[in-house]
Design a protein that fits this description.
heterodimer; A: 250 residues; mainly alpha; two-stranded antiparallel ribbon; 10 helices; 76% helix; B: 257 residues; two-stranded antiparallel sheet; globular
Chain lengths: 250, 257
């Protein structure tokens, strides 16, 4: 039953125009980055290092994407009355929220994969493949592609945590605009506060992949993963709890 | 027109949005100023007292506006269209352009009130944590408090112009798309892309986002008439283009569903 629900939510998430819009935006940002690098002197930038450069530069896009998908899957459906349609079948509300969370996670992962593939293509066309992987101009030892994929996968963990926060906001506000606005405000303004970076999901979105890439001690990596997982689990549980009591019969 | 603006304002201020936005502003300012101390390397700011706080943190107001304006217009245009309430005022002898004009006029009132609220909140919260101080710091100088207040109000007032032009852009997007989330996201992603483009010197002077950040700098303190004129022209150009698109599309939009 849950697999069917997830499939249904995924279909909704991927049939919207937003994934395509964000793919176009990600590619445009990559082209701007290429232009800036070529104008400023690309240094040692090469095609195999460009995806890593872009992972550093696109967490805002990931945050907005997670918020947009969460807004559509939860807030917009609530407003349009479509949220109750799934509940006409013998489906628990908690399971429905879980299915929406799974669809959101898959949509975020799909954009991350697209970003890496597009960055390889754009970077290689602009700079050539190159002979080694560089992170901020510093050579990274080992298999370059594997290291890049590891960094991209690492960035997904905090993005999922942020996504669940956005899903919670969508369920609570029931308003697509407020969901996106609050998520964007959190992303932009949380780093300005003096919140301990170890517990800030935005800080993790900006830096966790670098810690993994540069071989941070396993204890630190696990601690960061724990924080991202705590955000995901807490906000998912809070969303499911809130949903159980929400009046969806608009 | 006056009555329509009144209705739009009534709808806007009866919703929870402006109050949520104001609360967010206060919380962000509290979190920022409570930990701020002059000279702290964690902060890009250098001001030392509360009366300098609003002028030095206007970039925060700009970021708020980039988020709030598309939400207000997305609700007022796209959401109303979706719910079918957009056509209701047109049952009276009201032209579509007048209806959209009333929505933009109410947005302008919203922008002015939010900017005024931000300045007031930044003065209050800044003074609470840093003290009022004995002069306003700006552009490497210290000016008397009265002059500082004048500069602050002038800066916030001038920034209303690029915010309004951004509102016309967000309005054009809201008229063109069918879902509120798309309207908000397109405006935010466009602003994020424009912020990236600002790093290219040739583009920055033509960027609306750049005007939203620094338009006032060409006019207050050390006025540069040529720069001010050019920047005003850029804002007017954006306003004209997106205003024409918004009104043109809205005139022919199918709203009878």
């Amino acid at each position: 039953m849950l697999a069917g629900l997830v499939k249904n939510e995924c279909r909704k998430a991927f049939r919207m125009r937003k994934p395509r819009l964000f793919m176009a935006a990600a590619t445009l940002l990559q082209l701007i980055a290429v232009f800036r690098l070529l104008r400023d002197g690309a240094g040692e930038m090469n095609g195999q290092s460009f995806p890593l450069h872009m992972i550093d530069g696109q967490p805002l896009l990931m945050a907005l994407y997670a918020a947009a998908i969460a807004a559509d899957l939860a807030a917009d459906e609530y407003r349009s009355g479509a949220l109750k349609l799934a509940l006409l079948r013998p489906v628990g509300r908690g399971r429905l929220v879980l299915a929406k969370a799974a669809a959101l996670a898959l949509a975020v992962a799909a954009l991350a994969v697209f970003q890496v593939v597009a960055a390889y293509a754009v970077g290689t066309l602009a700079f050539g493949w190159g002979d080694r992987l560089l992170a901020d101009g510093v050579p990274v030892t080992g298999d370059g592609v594997a290291a890049t994929l590891k960094a991209a996968a690492a960035q997904l963990a905090p993005c999922m945590g942020f996504g669940m926060l956005a899903l919670f906001l969508a369920l609570v506000t029931g308003h697509a605009g407020m969901t996106i606005g609050l998520s964007a405000a959190l992303y932009l303004f949380l780093p300005l506060t003096r919140m301990d970076p170890r517990y800030s999901i935005v800080h993790q979105m900006n830096g966790f992949h670098l810690a993994v890439l540069h071989g941070a001690p396993i204890r630190d990596v696990l601690a960061d993963l724990g924080v991202a997982a705590a955000y995901a689990v807490l906000f998912l549980a809070a969303g499911a709890f809130y949903m159980k009591r929400k009046d969806v019969l608009l | 027109m006056g009555k329509l603006i009144g209705i739009e304002l009534y709808k806007l201020f009866r919703s929870r949005k402006p109050y949520v936005f104001a609360a967010i502003m206060v919380v962000i300012l509290l979190l920022n100023f409570s930990g701020y101390s002059p000279g702290d390397p964690m902060y890009a700011w250098t001001f030392r007292n509360g009366q300098s706080a609003p002028l030095h943190t206007l970039d925060i107001l700009t970021q708020f506006m980039m988020i709030f304006i598309p939400i207000v217009l997305g609700d007022s245009v796209t959401n109303e269209h979706r719910r079918g309430t957009l056509k209701l005022p047109l049952l009276r002898p009201v032209r579509r352009s007048v209806l959209l004009g009333a929505k933009f006029a109410s947005l302008l009132v919203f922008i002015v009130l939010m900017a005024a609220f931000y300045v007031g909140a930044a003065y209050a919260i800044g003074s609470h944590f840093l003290g009022w101080g004995d002069g306003t710091e700006y552009a490497g100088r210290v000016v008397p408090a009265s002059e500082g207040i004048r500069l602050t109000l002038a800066a916030a007032g001038l920034l209303v112009l690029p915010y309004a032009a951004y509102g016309l852009f967000a309005g054009a997007v809201a008229v063109l798309v069918g879902r509120m989330s798309v309207a908000v996201i397109v405006s935010l992603v466009a602003a994020a892309i424009a912020s990236n483009l600002n790093a290219i010197e040739a583009f920055a002077p033509w960027s609306l986002v750049d005007q939203m950040v620094s338009y006032h700098e060409a006019i207050i303190a050390d006025p540069d008439p040529d720069l001010a004129l050019r920047r005003t022209g850029v804002i007017a150009l954006y306003a004209a283009v997106f205003g024409l698109i918004a009104f043109g599309v809205f005139r022919k939009k199918d709203i009878l569903h």
